[in-house]
Amino acid sequence: MRLQLARLAGLFLLCLNLAWAQPADVARSKDHPLLTRFPNSHIVEYAKNFNGADFAVARGADGNPTRKRVEGDMTDILYFHNDVDRQPSALQLIRNYQNAIKGIGGEVVYERLPKDGDGGETTLRVNAGGKEVWVLVEPGIFSAPTQSYKLTVVEVAAMQQVVSANKMLDEINKNGFIALYINFDTNKAELKPDGQATVREIVAMLKAAPTLKIAVEGHTDNVGSAPANKTLSEQRAKSVMNAVVGGGIAAARLSAAGFGAERPIADNRSEEGRAKNRRVELVKKP
């Protein structure tokens, strides 16, 4: 009798554990390294390859979104929530990912808020790991018993420019300055490998023109607060100047300053414009 009771108790516990077991992710799937899933959800579809997606970037005159095609290393993930009583609203889901991106220095490019019959969507962008990362979040509202949401992430190489020493000197002699696009991680001022390559060309230029003096000026786009952008631009300008001095150029020939978003050369309302505004300029000094 005791043996029967023990077996029944074991069977009951097994059934209870199965009832509470969380659904498993589809094989060979995982969260994107930048963005974890909403709690209590699982992956039902997963794809990772080089591809392109259309991201909403603005609202057109007709009220429909204007979209931009972005190509790169794309990760597509479809999640389903595990519990109908604990699943978030479509708005809660959108705000969750917007806050996550802003928390790592990114921005909300576009949002269409949920309404009857429409779960909405949001486009997010951040620079991370030397890449420009675009994110599309699309809450589902028609699945049952729990809802789903789709996360599309496309990583593209950030704007890079390694200009030769001769071209730098020609531009400075002709125009009095040259704009260089040196990649930095978001909210960081440490030079990356392509930045070090640009510094070597600056050093070579200054060695070839021993009387030339330059001001290194940092500039940002308008994302973030003005004081923070100004400080960051100063730090990046000093990072470049110090690296040039480390390459054997006398510090007296150089100065560094940061202007934040005060001197844009393109429209900050578009991503292309913001990318052009994130620059370091070498300006010829008397």
UniProtKB/TrEMBL annotation:
Disordered: region residues: 264-286
Top-level taxon of the source organism: Bacteria
Cytoplasm found in the keyword field: no
Signal peptide region: 1-21
A Pfam short name: OmpA
Family matches, as SUPFAM superfamilies: OmpA-like
Name of protein: Outer membrane protein OmpA-like peptidoglycan-associated protein
